[in-house]
Amino acid sequence: KIGDYAAVARRKGEVWYVGAMTDWEAREIELPTAFLGEGEWTVEMVEDGVNADRDATDHVHRTAKVKAGEVLKIKMAPGGGWTARFTRD
Question: What is the CA radius of gyration of the chain?
Answer without folding.
Answer: 13
